[in-house]
Design a protein that fits this description.
This protein is α+β, with helices and mostly antiparallel strands. Helices cover 28% and strands 29% of the residues. It folds into 2 domains: 164 residues, 2-Layer Sandwich (Metal Transport, Frataxin, Chain A), CATH 3.30.920; 116 residues, Trna Endonuclease, Chain: A, domain 1. The radius of gyration is 22 Å and the shape is elongated.
């Protein structure tokens, strides 16, 4: 893949295959992290390519994103907004107040991402392995240079916004919203199959999209919600960056109670993952059932550079 159009062509063709692998794609574009999804477990109705700042994630943030509505043959480069969890800031008013949402564009409720805003929309025609792009609003042909220019325009605008946020002393970026729990959570999710958790539990996927991480409820957000492989019961997983105590038991039992009521699961389990725990937690666990504790260890090593 020598240029951006090659990458996009490969993405569009793969979107019509039963191939969910993304390892062949670049990890960055224009100094932003590049993330791709064709679905998890089953093909998604709307595959996507997102470009995110280092501090953000696809499940929580705002970012430029290609959304391919396969059934309509429409590719949208959008001012994307995460559906999984709201971020404390979003695109500025100049975008929100003057730009069409995807739902309004299609004039109907779409399967996914209807609240994101349109920057550019392209009509896609695939003939064998050849792809023709035209701008959906006027039917004009889209050149290779147009595709790359459109993406750089929105990504440069986005980088400027994020840079302003970081410089703002009142911004959530500057207040340290990203903690070790987040790093630990991302590590566990990305390496799920290689962990003890992955041997016993399954992550939850809906419509080809992972929904387990940062699972929203009306009483708060569950770090990870999974399912027991054998019983199918729900598993509430809470992460603590350092030492945990008995107050964590109150938090996790509250979420377990929510699952019992709203998911009709009386056998829900709880798991606490922490760096260490104190005696208070040990005693608190004696009074409750169905809660386990895992301790994590970080292996950090420096190797001396010996030269060539």
């Amino acid at each position: 893949m020598n240029n951006w159009k090659d990458i996009l062509n490969t993405f569009l063709l793969q979107a019509h295959e039963n191939n969910l692998k993304t390892s062949l794609y670049p990890k960055e574009f224009n100094d932003l992290k590049m993330r791709i999804s064709f679905g998890m477990g089953t093909p998604a109705h709307v595959p996507w390519i997102a470009f995110i700042a280092p501090e953000m994630q696809v499940s929580k943030g705002f970012y430029p994103v290609y959304l391919y509505y396969k059934e309509s043959g429409i590719l949208i480069l959008s001012y994307g907004i995460s559906e999984t969890e709201e971020f404390s800031t979003t695109w500025p008013a100049e975008i929100i107040n003057s730009t069409t949402t995807i739902s309004s564009y299609f004039n109907k409720k779409v399967r996914r991402y209807g609240d994101s805003f349109i920057f550019k929309s392209y009509k896609i025609k695939i003939n064998d392995d050849k792809i023709k792009y035209t701008y959906a609003n006027n039917g004009e042909d889209v050149t290779d240079e147009d595709l790359e220019s459109d993406l750089k325009t929105i990504s440069n605008y986005y980088k400027k916004l994020v840079s302003i946020e970081i410089k703002d002393e009142d911004s959530v970026f500057n207040k340290g919203i990203f903690y070790m729990e987040k790093q630990l959570e991302d590590f566990i999710i990305h390496n799920w199959k290689n962990t003890e958790l992955g041997k016993r539990f399954d992550l939850i996927i809906e419509d080809g999209v992972l929904v387990s991480q940062q699972y929203r409820t009306d009483i708060g957000i569950i770090d990870i919600l999974a399912k027991d492989k054998e019983t199918g019961c729900f598993v509430v997983i809470e992460l603590k960056k350092n030492q945990t105590s008995d107050d964590t038991v109150g938090q996790i039992t509250r979420y377990m109670g929510w699952v019992m009521k709203n998911k009709s699961d009386k056998n829900v389990k709880g798991i606490i993952i922490a760096g260490e725990f104190d005696k208070k937690l040990e005693y608190a666990l004696k009074a409750v059932s169905n809660i386990e504790v895992f301790l994590y260890k970080v292996n950090f090593r420096l190797n001396e550079f010996k030269g060539i």
